[in-house]
Amino acid sequence: MDTQQISAPSRAPSPVPGSATPSSGVMHHNSRHTSRFTVVGNHLAQHRELSLLAIGLATHIQSLPTGAKIGIKTLTERFPESEARIAAALRELEAHGYLKRTRERLPNGRVITRTCSYNQPGSANARPVPAPKRRPKPSHPAPAPASPAPAPPPPEQPPHVPAPTAPKPPPPPLPQPDNPLPQRHHAAIALLTDLHRNTPQLTLTERDIHALAPAVATWYERGATPAAIRHALTNDLPHPLKHPAKFLRHRLTHLLPPPRTPLHQPTPLQNCNHCDRAFRSPTPGNCRDCESGLPLTA
User: Fold this and answer.
1) pTM of the prediction?
2) Topology of domain 42-117, per CATH?
3) Phi-psi region of 226 (alpha: psi -120 to 50; beta: other; left: phi over 0)
4) Tens digit of pLDDT for each residue in 215-253?
């Protein structure tokens, strides 16, 4: 009886653990870092109680050099999260031992915040060093060793006083109309009040509207139309817009159009003192014919 030939296996081979490609889940393609890298423990990267924002913020802080600024405003400028979310993430890191913030007063009276980052909470570097235990006194005290001559005290260092910073120059004054007219003032208030309808970021208080109205009236005085003023104030707004009144004050001052050029006035008409004929001259007198002594023509 011939031997049966089997051309295909009866079932697919089972995957060998550790050597086969997984059918689902993440697959890692890792390359060895040789520069510009930070070692982060899995106790942080896979923390069960920290939020994802807190884990990412701790990783960012551990990658910074010593002395880098990590205040809430600095982190808010660096990342798109709000100040409230950044502050909450920092409190999470403090609660789990990854961060410690203390306030200290310098010799010059200035109060600063010192921040310590711990890449492994609970380690020796993260815990305060306990005070050494006192040894019991012997029953018979040994003779005290001869102490060396005391070293001279180091010279006192004067307290560090920060260099004075130049005072911030005051903002330029708001434009004021040369000829204040009530109708222009009312039109300026109406334009400022109506800005929030199409641009909610430019919602102003009543006090801000009355303070900015003279500047808008100056634009009207210089020939600007309401559409031109509205475009200059609402075009290309920054995001987020924190202080709309200060923003409008800046634009009304720095984008102010030039004053109108006066229209050419024709030379006024005068009556000749001799022949009473009309002629153009800036001052009264005689016409050219009478001045030249020519006879008058009918």
Assistant:
1) 0.37
2) Arc Repressor Mutant, subunit A (1.10.10)
3) alpha
4) 999 999 999 999 999 999 999 898 888 899 999 999 999
